[in-house]
Records
---
Amino acid sequence: MRPLFSFLAVLLLFGLLAAPTPTLAQPTGYYVVPLHRAGHNPGELNTEAEDFAPPVGWHQLMMADARIQQVPRWSPVDSLPVGFAFQLGGQPVRRFKVSSTGVLTFDVAAVPVPSAVPALLPNSRIPARSICVWGMAMDTAYAFFSFPRNDGTSRILTRTFGTAPNRQFWVQLRCFGLPSAPQGAIARLKSNWSIVLEETTNAVYVVDQRTRRYNSTDALALTVGVQLSATQATMAPGAPAINSDCYTGEPGSLMLSVAAPHDNTYYAFYPGTPPAADLALETAPLARYRAPGAGPLTLRGRVRNMGTQAATGYTIGYRINNAPPVLAAYTGGAVSAAAADSFRIVAPWHPPGAGTYRVKIWTRRAGTTPDAVPANDTLVRVVQVADRTVPRRFLLEMNTSSTCPPCLPANDSLRQLLRRHAGPVTVVKYQQNYPGEGDPYATPETLGRFLYYYGGYIPFTTLNGRDPGVSGGQLTDSMLVAAAAAPAVVALDAVYTVQGQTVTTAARVLPHLSATANQLVLHTLVLERRTFLNVMTNGETEFDNVVKKLLPDLGGAPLGALTAGQWRDVPHTYTFPTPNTVESFDSLFVVVFVQDVNTREVLQSAVARAGGVLGEAPETTAPAVSLAVAPNPATGRATARFTLEKTEPVALAVYDALGRTVLTLPARALPAGPHALPIHLRSAAPGVYAVRLTIGGQHYSRRLVVE
């Protein structure tokens, strides 16, 4: 019997007598949609800054050391969040690891680490069930925009955004460099890319977030794709030589993309085969805050054809709260496959009163073919209408340094501009730690404000938390007029005292609309009026409005849930340690401002009064006037409407985008009650104008578009 047993064993070993093996299902493949300069991150769930500084709020999976380039390695094995159901290629996956060369794999048993030299997929060096941003390398070369200066070490980070069942799990390759980067030196190139997994849809996104390089010859060469097996993979076009889209600058200068999603590119990998008909509403930005009696609502946005067939046309519809829907407010033309088209709608909406309004916007593809992916057809935005507005003191934040050559003329130009501007303005300056040795008065907090705004250069400047698109030395009169014209929906007052090295301050916030618990924050800044001891290399010998401390810290003080008409006081006390960089404690003063946490818009600012009692500031006790200009946009004629509480001298002026006066109505006394002043602009060229109403000593401004 022994020979028969041996023969049967051999047959079984080679499968000759075994039952037929069932055929394994082929993994579900992917198709890729490149979205170059999409202007946002996928799904708009992650709106964070994309700086090179050490992370806040992210889980660190691995950090580079001095040997990681010579000996590439895998990160420790990690898992997707609890309850985060995700399938790759139709198969459930959970545990993963990431290589120092940009490959995420769910084959956690894989041993060889792919080198940093990319190739076409599928490739034997890549494990099955992997997602590739293959061709970068971790290093310890410091990033030019980090604080402290040696904090440019590469990291692999994870974080979850959104709420179930529509969450995204982000794996960020932060501060990765070229495979040949020298350790510990100034990096020739630093880049942030992320691999994003989306539950429910099982989509995979690879996001090109931010890249900094020193010259135009340095470039990435990457393979971006998904490999399911040794024979099945999907690559983004251009592999294995995909470069970052996120470059700015001229050859020979520092080239740095902004640390903001609005210049991002991403590659979307969707399971299955591409649909023939899929038109997506890609963006629809909408200002959140509106004054009472404001004119029509302008809806703008962009649609993108995600299908393989051209769309012969489309419509845009919208609905505000529970009002009847407007089904075809806009009709667009043909959109070819992978192309995009922009739209603009002036919705004749006049809110019935103060409150929060939900604006739902959607697109519909023309023709009889149904849209295969209706989930990407609709976006929802929120608009808040205040019960009144108050005079605005706009905020100008400038990033500067005594080692920055352009900062000298920029600061001189700004001082001349501010001398010409008659309205109230709050100016703060954050000293930075570059170029070269940087300003000795730079701190982690001043750099933090620079990174918060996605600053990519200095003298980077913001107005009311918005990037005007030019540097601090290129601001114009019309830009200041426009910043002052924005309606203020929050009243703000503040007082302070300085005793020895201790600063005590209190601010009173009076909102004219309600806010949710995580919506608004109050920033309190301690500044020095003049400094002289931070002179370095750019020729400046005197510096003004120098920020010394943010209270309580960089994040400010969350205001919590607010109710319209109910004020909230926020006190702070801070004692400067010894030693410190304050040149004269008699030169300290305090600035406060209220900022939207999500949009970064600054709603109001104030310069604190030395001593005094909260609520006694002329700004907050002066009667508020609600100014409405309609129609807006206008053609030839508009009307300024307002109500006076008593007899007051009233004047009106209109300025063009260059700050030139195009219309003046001389001051005259008007009685208490409602008034309407005609604005005749028949000879005015189409464009943006500022309407300024002067009542007594108070100025009220509105933006007017002439078509």
Note: Confidence is low (pLDDT under 50) at residues 1-24, 145-150, 248-256, 617-623.
---
Amino acid sequence: MESKDRLGKIFWGIMACVLLLANPSSTVWAAPVSPLPLESKDSPKEMMQRLNKIVASLLEAGELDQAEKFAKKAKAIGEKILSPDDPIYATALDNLADFYWAQEEFSSALPLYRQALKIKEASLHPAHPQLEPTLNRLARFHLSREEYDQAEPFLEQLIKIKQGELGPNDPGLLPIMNQMAGVYRSQEDPAKLQPVLEQLLKVQEASKGSDHPDLIPTIQELGEIYLAQDEKALAGPMLKRLLKMQEKTLDPQSPQLMATLSQLAKFHFSQKKYDQAEPFLIQLAKIKSNELGPYHPDLIPTIQQMAEVYRTREDSAKLQPVLEWLLKIQEDSKGSDHPDLTSTIQELGQVYLAQDEKALAEPMLKRLLEMQEKTLDPKHPQILETTAKLTELSMETGNHEQVRSLLARELEIRKKESGPYHIDLAPLVIKLADSFRDSGNLSQAQSYYRHLWQISENSPEPQPLLQALVLQNLGEIHFKRNNPLNAEPLLMQALSIYEESIGPDSLQVASVLTSLGDLYSDRGDFSEAEQYYLRALKIREQSLGLEHPDVASLLKNLGYIYKVSLFLDHAESFYLKSLQINEKILGPDHLALAETLDDLAEVYKEKSELEKVEAFYQRALRIRENALGLEHLKVAESLRKLADWYHQIGKMQEGISLSKRADDIIEKSKIP
């Protein structure tokens, strides 16, 4: 019953408006129950406004059939009595458009909304609050159709209206600004999205505080936008703020937290600020390890970034454990022989070398060589480079057998390519020959030195230095084999070639002179040996300086000659000079000093300087004990020398004690 009364009131009010608007001069009596008392003095505009309100009431009440009739009538009347740019007419258009909107007849609604908006903008102001409902409808329509380019201007206008109405940071702006951000997000337009997000963040901060968790999505997206826009000065602080908030609110294993750590690491890395990237990578690796386990493949990208940080900083000490970790993961996930491991193994070998970790470097380089041989041609530069490094390392570690194996393998590869006597093979053959010589395999060494001679003779260019090198080494081999008659002419020939080719004062000449001195000294021709040693000493002192190990060695040789020749003051002087040089270079307790100390003790024995004899023998013994251990045969020899001296000077008890200790060491050494 109440509904019928209400409709009746509305109906009679509308009819009165219609009659008045149709004939403004007539007097109309409204129904006594009209909710909008009409007076004859109301102007057509006022009556039109009342009619618009009644239509709005019908729409609000859901009486769409009645609303349609009177909305269309209002539009028709407005067209007759109002100017086309009158805001009241625009309201009539809005009402009719609202009806079509409610019926989802958007094709009919949109032209009316646009017409009404145009009238209001012209008559009021583009930022007037009365434009808001129409703009809302138009924006919502285009957003629902994903027509973002068309929605954009309406949303921009709405934001200006709201800001003018509420202020720039009022929470009432949030819905519209979120819609505006969605538009630019969908358009993938970071340049336009950035200021919207910045304003949105200010609104959120004003309404919720700067640390509220609801700000996290905006801060996160804004940080990503700054990165995309290369706004480094803004991106860094925003990402750090995001991380701080996430650490307060999220689980440590949260994917969002890990993503932020990764972004911060990449951000600092891109700026070459490796010290700042490092803590984020460490934290990220720790989180992933706790979540997935320390050797999960998903850790590989993070560990590789950590490796790059330390690699760029040239920090081998920190790079080593990271590469070891990376290799372990790669082995577990791909297998120990997978080609993808090659680069890690190669770099780890280089790091071990840089860290002087020879015991780790050697097997790593061997492993690298084995992997390279499976995938690369034997002559590939990478294989040759690895072989060269492994050879050099094996030389340093004294693994002569491996050195020779590697060199022989490389030599065979190169011989197939260039022939057996190409001059480029000379460095390899020299290394092989030297290795066999140093290991005592003189026959093999001699064979390779003769191969070198054939290389020199087959060279298109004269090779005097190479030939001199061969002659010198062949001469020294004959000397070591106790064939001085064969050794001497070879050494003399080498000396002549060196003197003619590179001058009489070269270090190569000094080397041959020393070998000749050794030869003459060994056969007791000390006068001749002295001349060669003195000439070699002069060259080395001029070329290497007065305190070089090679100078000390020659001084020691001369000391021996003067000792056996009983030129004891000369012997003492040369031995002491040699000792002083080695003490300075090697330190006072180096094993190399012990032999010179024994020599000096023998000199002082001949000079009857008894206290010095005991002091030098005791010092030599102490050095050997510290360097070799108490049970070494060299220690036993040292004990016997001191014991013999004690016997000579009457310290029988001390001598017997030391002799017994020496005998015990020798007996223990015989036990298998």
Note: Residues 1-12, 17-40 have pLDDT under 50 and may be disordered.
